Amino acid sequence: QKEVEQDPGPLSVPEGAIVSLNCTYSNSAFQYFMWYRQYSRKGPELLMYTYSSGNKEDGRFTAQVDKSSKYISLFIRDSQPSDSATYLCAVNTSTGNQFYFGTGTSLTVIP
Amino acid sequence: DGGITQSPKYLFRKEGQNVTLSCEQNLNHDAMYWYRQDPGQGLRLIYYSQIVNDFQKGDIAEGYSVSREKKESFPLTVTSAQKNPTAFYLCASSMDPSSGGAGGYEQYFGPGTRLTVT
User: Fold this and answer.
1) How far apart are CA A22 and CA A5, in angstroms?
2) B114 contacts A97? CB cut-off 8 A
3) Which residue, B80, B78, B74, B81, is CA-closest to B115?
4) How far apart are CA A96 and CA A2, in angstroms?
5) What does each of the 118 residues of chain B score in pLDDT, given as a tens digit?
6) Residues of A in contact with B3 (CB under 8 A)
7) Interchain contact A96–B (C-beta under 8 A)
8) How far is CA B4 from CA A58, B88, B90, in A?
9) What CA–CA distance (Å, rounded) separates A31 from A52?
10) What are residue B21's DSSP bridge partners?
């Protein structure tokens, strides 16, 4: 079983829609949760990270962690064409040496 | 500006040649990482290093070598033994999660090097 599972999509939505991106993870020891945005042929850009459970909001982006179900989500409100990219989730323990990544979800926002 | 630089952006090599990819960071991070990204396969860890002069193999280390002589630098050599070297290579850094500090351990990436071997 992979440490992190992510639906690869592709996901296509109209401009202005609310987007929900999700990952599940297997190890309850994971405590750090990250979301990255990656444009084509570029390095991943850290969007948000959260520690333990709960929500974190930054502008149009909200990251949510549900440790009881080992489920992490990224919500994008009022989606824009510039949000079109691949979104990667990642997890880590508080002392671990390795980060574990989902395979990424490809998102297209149609004007 | 703090960040991670990788050079070159594009690299072309003939089969059988070794090639070295550069990675430099000025974030004062202890830990550095090399990943390989192929379409549909996500990020796969090649090597990582938590401190100078020490590094560990990741999931796909065969055919690769690294060095960590300086905290800021973590070059990756793709050797002729690597069977399928054509890929997008990403360098990353973070604070060292095992140091027990109170900071966040998010990982930051460089812009990547696209290597094509023919």
Assistant:
1) 9
2) no
3) B78
4) 16
5) 669 999 999 999 999 999 999 999 999 999 999 999 998 778 999 999 989 999 999 999 999 999 999 999 999 999 998 989 999 999 999 887 665 554 556 789 999 999 999 9
6) none
7) yes
8) 24, 16, 10
9) 5
10) B76
